């Protein structure tokens, strides 16, 4: 249904809510094959085999075309200050922009509350952290169908929150390539998973913040210099293992090569270089022990050479097992601390966080469209397609100049947000809308007098 038809309906102040409700309520008919039958990850395994044959790949194939950053790298308050400096310098224009921002809040708040309520209703039967009474247990096919329903409803919310889905090719690269600077490396068994999907926003290239207090930044012998990495400010994970349940998690400051560290059912692996260094250390120390002690034992105690070699091999085997066990325990602790610092929200709480982020991005897109079209009202005289292309080009250039980040701005969506908001401007708040008092500080209740004690009791 077109925007113009909605604008002709009564109650223009709620036009945007109705239009958005129809868009959000529609089901996404096409879902990636990752949610298909048990062999659905076979294509991912094939792509992983291709990357294993490559010599030192540094990024996924055609990465610039695969991933387009859509996240606006400013908070709404920062964006309003920038827009005031650039477009609304007079007191009247500043007040008008602030009123428009309040109007956007009013119009979107109820809509996104409904979106969150629907998501929570869909997610409640499969919520592993439910604090209410237990419901009848679901069969595995029923649980899988419910999980697919939740992910279908979650996809448009992620799109409005300006997350970008990582392609299967990028996931294959992340599962195969291990960055040499990663202190902890893990491995997974792909056959244990039914599906996995990642969404990311805020791509950065630079030195990553350290996310653990365990261990040190030293290499095996020398201090490892800091290097620039490609990482994301936020990563959302949806994965399910066989016999498990849907895992919904969000992490911060995650490198592209470290995505597999976020998956469930993984094992810590010792890197090849570390294994070689440990084996070399054991071999050198063992040979020194054998030459200094073994020869004395052979001479003085008349112990047979075969028996001595057997005892020596057993001793070195136990020593190697202990050293590798201690190394893996330290790496497992490092991984646990790293995930502790990176994790931002899980399961049901993630739904609330994504809804707030989608509302924030919705408001920022409307503010940008409002300011740019108010400065150039002649841009609205052309066809909607040309207007959206002009708006997209202007906003992308302005964001690049202000932040240094290349952002793919959705001009058509921002223009649709603005068109449904414009007719209702001036009726905020609507007549009869209750105005609640600010929350008063809760005063402590006065202590009740203790009843007199009777000695006759």
UniProtKB/TrEMBL annotation:
It comes from the Eukaryota. Signal peptide: none annotated. The chain crosses the membrane at residues 276-297, 303-321. Keywords: Membrane, Phosphoprotein, Transmembrane, Transmembrane helix. Residues 436-457 are annotated as: Disordered. This is Transmembrane protein 143. It comes from Echinops telfairi. The lineage of its organism: Eukaryota, Metazoa, Chordata, Craniata, Vertebrata.
């Amino acid at each position: 249904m077109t925007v113009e038809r909605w604008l002709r309906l009564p109650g223009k102040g709620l036009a945007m809510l109705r239009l958005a409700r129809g868009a959000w309520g529609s089901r996404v008919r096409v879902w990636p094959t990752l949610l298909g039958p048990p062999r659905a990850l076979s294509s991912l395994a094939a792509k992983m085999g291709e990357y294993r044959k490559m010599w030192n790949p540094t990024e996924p194939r055609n990465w610039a075309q695969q991933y387009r950053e859509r996240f606006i790298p400013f908070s709404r308050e920062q964006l309003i200050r920038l827009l005031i400096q650039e477009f609304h310098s007079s007191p009247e224009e500043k007040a008008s922009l602030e009123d428009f921002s309040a109007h956007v809040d009013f119009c979107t708040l109820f809509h996104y509350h409904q979106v969150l309520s629907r998501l929570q209703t869909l997610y409640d039967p499969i919520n592993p952290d439910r604090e209410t009474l237990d419901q009848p247990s679901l069969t595995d096919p029923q649980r899988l169908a419910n999980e697919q329903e939740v992910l279908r409803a979650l996809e448009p919310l992620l799109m409005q929150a300006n997350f970008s889905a990582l392609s299967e090719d990028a996931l294959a690269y992340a599962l195969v390539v291990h960055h040499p600077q990663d202190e902890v490396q893990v491995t997974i068994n792909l056959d244990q998973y039914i599906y996995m999907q990642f969404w990311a926003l805020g791509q950065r290239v630079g030195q990553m913040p350290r996310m653990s207090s365990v261990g040190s930044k030293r290499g095996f012998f020398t201090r490892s210099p800091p290097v620039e990495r490609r990482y994301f400010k936020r990563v959302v994970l949806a994965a399910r293992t066989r016999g498990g349940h849907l895992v919904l998690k969000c992490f911060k400051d995650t490198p592209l090569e470290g995505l597999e560290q976020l998956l469930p059912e993984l094992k810590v692996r010792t890197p090849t270089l570390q294994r070689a260094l440990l084996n070399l250390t054991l071999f050198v120390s063992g040979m020194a022990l054998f030459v200094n002690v073994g020869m004395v034992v052979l001479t003085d105690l008349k112990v047979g050479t075969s028996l001595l070699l057997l005892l020596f091999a057993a001793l070195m085997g136990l020593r190697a097992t202990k050293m590798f066990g201690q190394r893996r325990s330290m790496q497992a602790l490092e991984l646990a601390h790293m995930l502790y610092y990176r994790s931002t929200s899980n399961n049901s709480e993630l739904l609330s966080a994504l809804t707030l982020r989608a509302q924030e991005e919705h408001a920022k897109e409307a503010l940008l469209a409002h300011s740019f079209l108010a400065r150039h009202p002649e841009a609205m005289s052309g066809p909607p397609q040309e207007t959206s292309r002009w708006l997209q080009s202007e906003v992308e250039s302005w964001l690049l100049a202000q932040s240094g980040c290349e952002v793919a701005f959705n001009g058509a969506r921002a223009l649709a947000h603005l068109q449904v908001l414009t007719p209702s401007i001036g009726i905020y708040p609507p007549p009869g809308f209750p105005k609640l008092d600010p929350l008063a500080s809760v005063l402590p209740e006065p202590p009740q007098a203790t009843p007199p004690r009777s000695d006759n009791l």
